[in-house]
């Protein structure tokens, strides 16, 4: 569809950019002026980013690495930085970290019109133009995160090839393939001992992507309680901590609070797992079944919703729990005056205006049944509701209307 569009109204040759949108030249890291026509024959990425935005700061080195690798033998991929920086100094500071071209900071008109033309709503954003200047991808950032250098030349054909490979990989996935690499076939436990990956084969396994950050520190104790309770019941369940901490002290601090095993710190498998599962944020809990295939990526949400009842996280189990929740919800009050919000909250379900949300009370993810103030965008788990003036609030559960009146 994008291609079709580009052949008529948005048809875009590089000469088109230069004459109508960019004054006349781009700048290079050495300060030299480069004509847009010099980009001829290369795939070009328009990189919309800004110094002040952390996501841009973390994506830029990844993009720089891919850029260097693609251009190792023959230069065939060029990037043009389109800055949303607030002033010349921030622009220069950020541009120092980039090995590619840029639109001069002073060329406000060019930046504005490109942002408008490609309907850029968030940064970082990477729009790819093929060697003839036709835009072929707007999701360049995702593609780089997911496939790295493999994504080149970003054509729809290349992307669908990669998606097919991905599907095949997931279909032949095993726990050993996921976790063992370069001769390491073990994980480590709390006291630093090696635990063979083979010991985990045949179990339900949670891959817990985490680091020392507030949302993880909040979720880990909850997950640990679920884990301990399942272990007590002798369930065949294990969790593996996959740390994306930047430093070892963060990793050790996290691991100390966990009763399960871990991948060694900075093991190269971490990077490939992040890519393979396309991890976008933490904490994330991915559940692998006894056959080594992925059961669900929603482990965190399911643990929040159902605690140990979520085990073994299979579709059948979740459906069962869902039905039970729906049944229970019949006795929930339709509306509630929660202690933490000044308006009356209304009961919603996924089919009646609810949807995935972050609970304003416990900061955890939720979906399905919730209490909501639609005007304020305030939404909480039913289990997090606290009645105004409740004195014996031992379990935070919702009272029925009769109880409320009593
Ligand atoms: Zn909550
Ligand atoms: Zn409100």
Automatic annotation (TrEMBL):
Tree of life domain: Eukaryota
UniProt keyword Nucleus present: no
Transmembrane segments: none
Catalytic activity: [protein]-dithiol + NADP(+) = [protein]-disulfide + NADPH + H(+); [protein]-dithiol + NAD(+) = [protein]-disulfide + NADH + H(+)
Enzymatic class: oxidoreductase
Keywords: Metal-binding, NAD, Oxidoreductase, Repeat, Zinc
UniProt-listed PROSITE patterns: THIOREDOXIN_2
UniProt-listed Enzyme Commission number(s): 1.8.1.8
One Pfam family linked to the record: C1_2
Domain (Thioredoxin): residue spans on this chain: 1-168, 172-330
GO molecular function, one term: thioredoxin-disulfide reductase (NADPH) activity
SUPFAM superfamilies according to UniProt: Cysteine-rich domain, Thioredoxin-like
Family classification: Belongs to the nucleoredoxin family.
Record-given protein name: protein-disulfide reductase
């Amino acid at each position: 569809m994008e291609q079709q569009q580009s052949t008529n109204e948005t048809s875009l040759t590089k000469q088109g950019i230069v004459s109508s949108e960019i004054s006349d030249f781009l700048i290079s890291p050495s300060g030299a002026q480069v004509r847009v026509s010099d980009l001829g024959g290369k795939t070009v990425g328009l990189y919309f980013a800004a110094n002040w935005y952390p996501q841009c700061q973390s994506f830029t080195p990844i993009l720089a690495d891919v850029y260097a690798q693609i251009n190792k033998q023959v230069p065939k991929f060029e990037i043009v930085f389109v800055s949303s920086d607030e002033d010349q100094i921030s622009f220069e500071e950020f541009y120092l970290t980039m090995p590619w071209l840029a639109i001069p900071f002073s060329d406000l008109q060019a930046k504005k019109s490109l942002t408008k033309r490609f309907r850029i709503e968030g940064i970082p954003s990477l729009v790819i133009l093929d060697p003839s200047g036709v835009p072929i991808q707007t999701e360049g950032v995702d593609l780089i995160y997911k496939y790295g250098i493999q994504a080149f030349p970003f054509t729809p054909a290349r992307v669908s090839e990669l998606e097919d490979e991905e599907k095949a990989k997931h279909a032949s996935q095993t726990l050993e393939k996921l976790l063992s690499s370069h001769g390491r076939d073990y994980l480590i436990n709390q006291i630093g001992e090696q635990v063979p990956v083979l010991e985990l084969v045949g179990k339900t396994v949670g891959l817990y992507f985490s680091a020392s950050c507030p949302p993880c520190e909040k979720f880990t104790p909850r997950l640990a309680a679920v884990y301990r309770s399942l272990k007590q019941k002798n369930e065949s369940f294990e969790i593996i901590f996959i740390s994306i901490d930047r430093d070892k002290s963060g990793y050790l601090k996290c691991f100390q609070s966990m009763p399960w095993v871990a991948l060694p710190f900075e093991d190269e498998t971490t990077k490939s797992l992040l890519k393979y599962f396309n991890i976008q944020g933490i904490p994330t809990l991915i559940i692998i079944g006894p056959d080594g295939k992925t059961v669900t990526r929603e482990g965190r949400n399911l643990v929040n919703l159902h605690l140990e009842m979520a085990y073994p996280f299979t579709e059948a189990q979740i459906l069962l729990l869902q039905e039970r929740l729906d049944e229970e919800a019949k006795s929930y009050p339709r509306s509630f005056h929660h202690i933490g919000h000044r308006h009356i909250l209304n009961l919603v379900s996924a089919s009646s205006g609810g949807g995935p949300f972050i609970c304003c009370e416990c900061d955890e993810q939720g979906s399905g049944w919730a209490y909501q103030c639609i005007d304020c965008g305030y939404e909480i788990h039913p289990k997090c509701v606290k009645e105004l003036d409740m004195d014996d609030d031992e379990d935070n559960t919702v009272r029925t209307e009769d109880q409320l009146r009593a």
